[in-house]
Amino acid sequence: MVARSDRWQEMVNLRIDITIYIEGVQSDNNAVLTIDNAAIFREKFYQLFSQQLSSEKFNLIIQPFGSITKARKMLERIEKQQINGVLLIDLDGPKQQIEQRLKRYKPFDTTKIFFMIQEMEAWILSQVDKIEEFGKNEGLIRKRANEDIYTNPLIKNKHPEEISKPNEKLDTILRQYFDVIKIRRGKEQQKSKRYSKTKDGPKLIGLLELQILMQHFDEAKRLVDYIQRKNYSNEQ
């Protein structure tokens, strides 16, 4: 028993601490900015990345930092405090803008910046079956039951990286295909489901399959490869 405990402690000591600072948990509506939302954000992104980054090798820490305006400060913190960390942020544009966008963060180490192209919601739109799963989990009412979401002209035959303003596209798709029941003044009202980046985004992210994301998004693959190389270097 002691030997097993010692072996476990040795494994824990060998794990690499890695922090992924992620743009998110920011809203103009103070009512949705709760500790619970931040906890769910951490949990769901951890759920996603732990599919490839084993807890036996990595002590993975997910840290949302709010608005993109804080990204430079996060990068500065990583450098000054010598944190083993990376940034994951929305590009808010096509991948051709990556090089220009990185110039904003010089002279810091921009190899630690990774982008969700064009936004986090593109990751969600790349796996339409997870939107269906989300609808069932949330008890939403499915409309247009005989129509597959992937046939929607907003996303049909489009590479997910090429979908402009995916946040808006996801909101439109949810409104078109799902209703939600709300209680107002003691009466049930059936309304189209609106997308909330703060509440719905993390739940959808937690359903995604990372291996598939890595096939569709070069930056997702680059992020996982970068962290895994850190582990390989540490083992040498």
Description of the molecule:
By secondary structure, the protein is of the alpha/beta class. The strands form 2 sheets. A 4-stranded parallel beta sheet has the order 2-1-3-4, sandwiched between helices. Strands 5-6-7 form a 3-stranded antiparallel beta sheet. The relative contact order is 0.16. Helix 2 links the parallel strand 1 (16-22) and strand 2 (58-64). It has 10 helices and 7 strands. Helix content is 43%, strand content 17%. Residues 7-12 and 27-33 have low confidence and may be disordered. The protein has helices at residues 2-14, 35-49, 71-80, 98-102, 120-125, 128-137, 166-177, 200-205, 210-216, 218-235, and strands spanning 16-22, 58-64, 85-90, 113-116, 141-142, 178-184, 187-192. The chain starts with a helix and ends with a helix. Helix 9 (210-216) packs across helix 10 (218-235). The radius of gyration is 20 Å and the shape is globular.
> Radius of gyration, rounded?
20 Å
The residue-averaged pLDDT reads 89
Structural class, please?
Answer: alpha/beta
The number of E-state strands comes to 7
Strand order of the largest sheet: 2-1-3-4
Helix content: 40-55%
